Every structure is written in C-alpha cells, then in structure tokens.
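To: structure desk
From: M.T.
Subject: fold request, one chain
Message: Could you run this one when you get a chance? Sequence is below, nothing fancy, just the single chain.
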Amino acid sequence: MSFEIGGELPFQSAIREAIKWMRERNPAIPTSALEGEAFEVGGGGVAPAQSIVLNFESGRVWAASLDDPDKTIAGRTWVTEITVGEQAGRVLFGARLINVTLRTDDPFVPSLPGVARQVVERLPSRADRTSLSERARRVNTSQELDDMIDLLDDESRRLPVVVIADKVSRPVFSQPNSLARRLAGAAHVIALGADAARGLIRRWGKPLSVYDGAARLYRPGFRSDRSDPYEHPLWIPRNGSTSGGRADLVVSRVLAESVTTARRDDYPRFNVIRQAAAAREIAARRATATDTDLSRLFEEENQRLTDELRKVRQEFDQWLDDSEVSRRELERRVAEIGAELARARAQNDHLRAALASGQPPKQREPLRDLREFGTWAEDNLSTNIWVAPKAVKETEKNGVFDNPVLLGEALFMLDDFYVSMRREPGPGRRLAYESRLSELNCSDQPCFSIRNQIKSFPQYSVTYNFERLWCDQHIKYGSGTDPRRFFRIYYHWHDADQVLLIGHMPTHLDNNLTN
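Reply: Done. Structure tokens follow.
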C-alpha cells in the first residue's frame, strides 16, 4: 500500500512517525533515528530492525524493516517494510506487512501495517486526489453524491472504494467508521445516506448500486457505463450474522486484493533500496579507500547479501507454499460448491416433480447405517448444513452409536430448527428449537467455558472456505465412556454464509473437562 503525504516537512514527519511506531516494538532503536539517521539493531531489542537512507540527484529515499515475532504462533514472524520517498516536491509513504512462517501456517485475518494507520491518523494523507482518514466519508447531498460518482468512475483510481449504505429495513452490513480504521490507507470507505442511495439507484440502476444496509466493493477500473456488477461484490446483511464477522470478510477481501493487484512500480522492496545504497557507498569510497578497506566493504556487503538472500528464499518458499495451499483449497472449494449446487438442484427437482404430480414430496430417510453416513447426509440434509469431510470420515470409520436413527433426528433438528432460529431470531423459533432438543433428550452446550481456551485444542478446528474456524458449540446426547451409548455433534455457525458447519461427530473430543 502507498499514498501521498502532505503538510509541513512531510518527508521528515513521515520518518518520525515510522520510528515512533518502530521504537514501541524495539526500544533499542536509537533516538537519532528520529532525525532520519540510518541504524541497524540486532539482538539487543525485542525485534531486529534496520533503516537505510539513499540520496540521489532528484530526490531521496528512506527505508526501514522491522521483524516482529508473533506473540501466540511459534515460528511466525511479521515483517513490516516501510518506505518514504521524496521526488519533484511529492512525498510518498509505503508499507508492507509480510507473514513469514517456518512451518505450516495457521489461517489468519489479514491486517494493515499498524504504522500506516498511525501515519494516516497524524499526517495529511491523500490518494486518488482524495484525503485519507480513519473515519468513513459521509455522502448525503446531491453534490456529495456527484463527488463520490466521480471517484468511483475515475479510470486512474488506485485504491478500492468500500461503500456502506445506511440501514432502512435491515441492519447495516458493517459499521463504516470501524471499517475505515481497519482499512486506513488501503481503501476509501464511504457511508452512503439513504437519500443518496436512492439517488444512486436512479442514476445507475440497482445492479451497480448499494442500498439498505448493504456494502459494496468497487474495485479500481470500475466504470458505471460498462462494468459487470458481479466483478464488484455486493454484500447484504443477513439475520444472525455479526457485524464483526462481516467486517472481517470485507477486510480480508480488500487486503488480499491489495497484494495480488499491487503495481510493480508502487515502490521498491527494502532489500533493493539497501543494495542500491551499498553500491553507492562502495562507488564513492573506491577512489580514496585502500585495498584493505575495499576488501572489508565487499566482505560486509557479501555477508549482507547472503543474509538477505536467505531471508528472501524463506519468504519465497512461504509464498509458494501459501500459493499451493490456496490453489488446492480453491479447487476443493469449487468442487464443493458444485456438489452443493447439484445437491440443491436435485432437492428442488424432487419438490417440483411432487408439486407437478400432486404427490407429497419425497420423505427424508432415517439414518440407519453410520457406515453410509456420507451418502445419507448428501441425500437427506439441506445445503443449510455443511459437514466437514473429516466428520464424515470419523462417523463412517469410528461411529458405533447404537441408535443411528436418533443421531439422524438430531441432524434434522439442526437443519429444520436451529438454522431458522439463527437466520430469523425470535422467542418463538428459540422455543421451538429448545422443545425439539428436549424431545430428543439432547442439550446444546458450549465446548469451553473460558474464551479462547478452545484454541489450545486443534481438534476442535475446521477449515471452511479458506478460513480456520472453531467448533465452539456441541450437541450432547448421553454420557459415560461407552461410545455406543452417547454421541456428540461439534459445530460452528458461519455468520457470513448463514450455514451451520459440523466439524466433528459422533465421537467425543477431549478437553480440559473431558465431558
């Protein structure tokens, strides 16, 4: 991400803000760095840090790098690269946040480099000839709507625009100011008033507009006269989903695209600037330095290059691994969506055929054989329920509960009662769900009483649509140690997709209480 800095002494001011942020994470960084002096801090601080200054005929560049080990995930390091460049009277600020993990990585919600948010908050910042802010820009009047349309239709626009419409009949998808803070410097965030939203519909029609609490991502390159609406995602809030979960969805999409669509000429990587500065130093000292001095300089530079190459290789290996995992996960997800679509179409065909013939719809079959659970689930559960492949495998391989019909009824209960209660909350639907639980002698309980304790038990996790999620609730029937007499269904409610995810069943998962 990169943007322009204004105000008084913007080059020096941006460096000072960057160093203040870095010193909070590594107090060993010298105070002289606040004035733009180069430094290198190794093991003396919490995290290795360094900076370099490169002066040239038409401008100057200051660049820094900070390695910050993750406080919770062993082997993961967050590398923040910061660049401040000045040329032809303009000052640009750029930052990258790189995840380097020396093992199989855990999924995470992307985030901005914190230093970028601090700079936007404290210094005049602009992109696409528009001021950047940690607060969403309000659009209410006709003139403000005209200005927003000009920004969206600007062919030279570099940053995406997230527009969130005021609620009318449903809750707002995400709080605009909260989202603006999380995307400060990476996107323009606009809060669109109800009247302005109606004006947008009158100009563009509904397919390209955003309205009634919804949010839309207008990517760079959007043109209102020819863009495909499906290339600019529209998110509509659904009952039962949370604002925080919906905000994670938008942030993940925007920041992921900021990596895949970054322009090569935005600004160079830290190692490129450091190598250019080292080459200039060697060239400047070649005329006066002794052979011994030059030999020492070359040895130092060779060692730096060797260390840098090792680091770049680690990052490259990580990117390759992440790319392969993403490719495989995307292929799996496409196949899964195709299967879900075929399943939904088959169920719809059965209903249409029943209506056309005047016959009652096909009745769902009881679950009679756990060894055939996967086929039964595909034929009898709706697309409101997603059963993880590992849960299917566990049920078919290790499931010995002696009343499969009851287990199937519990799944029908989740499909018929729980999903509708989450999608359209209300006392009547909750009472219906709780009554059915009671009829089946089941209970619905949290898996852990202490927040985040579940993350110490990876067997409770499930990967769905590129996300690692936690099955924090479970349906419980029976007790004891004989798996023929009890079952468990561990699940997670997915806010964004409004789907119940089953990560494990029917056997018991250990926890700190083992109940």
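Reply (cont.): The first helix runs from residue 10 to 25. Let me know if you need anything else for the meeting.
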